[in-house]
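Input sequence (101 aa), recorded before submission:
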Amino acid sequence: MTEQNSDRETKQDIEIENAARDRHQLRTMTVAVTAVASVIGLVIAAIIYAVALNRLWFLHFPLGFYMLAQGILFFAIFVTFWYVRVQEKIDLTRSMNEEIA
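Predicted structure, token format:
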């Protein structure tokens, strides 16, 4: 009788762990897809509107050229730092939940 109870508890623990792992992986994938999609979206927008942006000037460069040469790089670095900060929060939440359980 005790073996059956311990087997049930073990199965429940495994299911709980799998659910927690799945939530963690889903959150991680959502943040990663958001980061990559935002950078790709900005690249596409800068390419589409490059001719219109070139009518404006920034630091003696056409704005479309500057956005493609420097602006997207700055944005990608910003998104990378944002991604790391959010991922650390997700990992911290997971580790705190594991300690409690």
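Checked by second reader. The two ends are 25 Å apart (CA to CA).
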